[in-house]
UniProtKB/TrEMBL annotation:
Enzyme class, broadest EC rank: oxidoreductase
Cross-referenced InterPro entries: NAD(P)-bd_dom_sf (IPR036291), Sc_DH/Rdtase_CS (IPR020904), SDR_fam (IPR002347)
Enzyme nomenclature, EC number: 1.1.1.175
Gene3D superfamilies for this protein: NAD(P)-binding Rossmann-like Domain
Keywords recorded for this protein, A-Z: Oxidoreductase
Organismal lineage: Bacteria, Pseudomonadati, Pseudomonadota, Alphaproteobacteria, Caulobacterales
Family: Belongs to the short-chain dehydrogenases/reductases (SDR) family.
Alphabetical list of SUPFAM superfamilies matching this protein: NAD(P)-binding Rossmann-fold domains
GO molecular function, one term: D-xylose 1-dehydrogenase (NAD+) activity
Classification via PROSITE patterns: ADH_SHORT
Keyword tRNA-binding recorded: no
UniProt-recorded name of the protein: D-xylose 1-dehydrogenase
Amino acid sequence: MAQNEGRVAGKKAFISGGAQGLGAAAARRLAEEGAKVSLADINLEGATKTAAEINAAFGEGTAFAFPLDVTKEEQWIYALEEADEAMGGISVLVNNAGISIGGDIEHLSFDDWKKVMSVNVDSVFLGTKHALKYLRQNQPGSIVNISSIAGLIAAHNSPSYNASKAAVWLLSKGIGLHCAKQKLDIRSNSIHPTFIDTPILDPLRQMFGKEEAESKLARQVPLGRIGEPLDIANAVLYLASDESRFMTGAELKLDGGISAM
């Protein structure tokens, strides 16, 4: 598909955690529909590899890669500035980077609590704070924050993940209201996946084996299966596009029906 065609033709997206998993899938889907994409990740080698694959498929100059530790404010400032120069602007921010560390409230260490909150929540604050400068210059704009169904439904053994993803949910709403109050054509929404076939499931696969681990997870989903990265990438595409121009401060639940129970 030519770069001037597609549902997000002319859009310029910055994606944190873009080296693999949901970030890489979103980058490919946006590029497929005409956007330029910047993949930022602490794993620069992986981000560079994914960007090269996207350029091979959709043309040189479609994708770029930048180093980014999402917990470091100065790295956000640098990566966004570089991406703005490379793409000729930023009109879409996808705050995708995230981690999960297990442990119930009595056994989770304070250091692990702070690490999860820093990666999952501080990153959204820092990314949005510094990206708005560029989004203002490239309206209409869209901020897409990857939360989780775990931000809406709690579990007994994941307090840090539950709390961090719930924070992303409400922070997304506050950002949307801020932009509306400022009369900006910039929207902010969150996506709430359930179990998706990405590396975040690897600890379970190592514990039970791939088939048994995925079977255990699928039994918790009314649709009877775990999700695919493309399922989430399609939601990112919708929120990044002008098709969702009247949607802000909202959430998309992609959970196979779990929250309906």
